[in-house]
Predict the structure.
Amino acid sequence: MPYGITFFRRLPGRTLSETLDHRAAAWDGWEGDVDADRKPMNLTPDRRAHWDEIVRRVGAEIGPVSVEEYPYNLTLERNGPIGRIQLDYDGESADIECAYHYSGEAARQMVAEAYRLADIVEDITGLEGFDCETERPTAEGNVEAAAARLGAVSHWARTAIPRMPAKDRPGTAP
């Protein structure tokens, strides 16, 4: 499970909290196959232009990226000096993810870059970003709280989850 920021369109006449509750209710009790119910992405020309502008701006303002197109979403990967951030976008929503590998200054730098990416997505698409870990909108820009959360979960994962012995790790010789 990666550190996540999600983006969505606020429902007309609803608060941020009401929109999030509505989204969560759609998943409650659902036990189906995610891909079985998904329809391939069908971007409008405007939303395709939004994607192209995201890719251009992230490359210019943050650093080099690679992109892929899949049936259900477009993916941007940023492999920066600190680590990897991924953005998935389907025109209606988006998600930013990074791994729980960072603590201290590295966590702050990773979150700062993720929040900068979030600013670009919000600016171009009109989607609203929500940091799933801090449970706050990304527009509030609380990088320090997000970095503390990323660092805390990373520390917990390193100390609480047993490590697989080297001999059992994929790609290692017996």
